[in-house]
Amino acid sequence: MDYALNPYSGCAHGCVYCYAPEVTHAEWGGWRIPKAKMNIARRLALELPNIEGVIGIGTVTDPYQPVESELELTLQCLKVLKDRGFRIHMHTKSDLILRDIGLLSEMDGTIGITVTGIEERESKMTEPGAPMPSRRLEAIRELVDAGIDVYALVGPVLNHLEGREDAFVDAVADTGVKLIYMDSLNSRPLLSERLARMRFRGSPSAERRINESAEAAGIEVRPVFR
Ligand code: SF4
Predict the structure, then answer these.
(1) What is the rounded average pLDDT of the residues 194-213?
(2) Could you tell me the pTM of the whole model?
(3) Which of 36, 48, 52, 57: CA 20 to 30 A from 2?
């Protein structure tokens, strides 16, 4: 990615392991209330003639958080980028991306969908505003079937996956995806305190087991953000 495009600041997915508030010096409570950059598509159209390279979308906040279904700022940006022939690299943990699958299938780009487990209970605790894992896995499946370049972003790997690594990898493999980018917990002071209160922590042993299981399933695993 050569540029970062985030149509929203703040993110209603509210993941307990999110370190973006610490990076952007935002308060955790305020972070969970998204602010929309209403003129972003217009500004993007003005700036594109002066740049070239891959546009990263969703580098700090999720471009398909719930407010996007109403405001369509990400969709507006995608249309501008498609018209100018830009390559994109986009991250999300929402199946709202399927709304734009037709457009994405006509663009040059790579999509990462985050999955951190398969259990709804843990997902509700760790990613309370995000779609359940089953919907994200279905989104990966539909993107694969549409011929879009997609990978599963598995991270952070937390201790609730211990003992369930093989079932998790089976569910990911079922989507047809052939690449996992795996991320360890990025432990920053406030974030670690929050997770410790909930008895969550990073799990190197789960990472190792996912690696082995994915390799056996014919899925390539690469580290990310390292
Ligand atoms: S989806 Fe990403 S940006 Fe949004 S709260 Fe979760 S980790 Fe943070």
Answers:
(1) 95
(2) 0.96
(3) 36
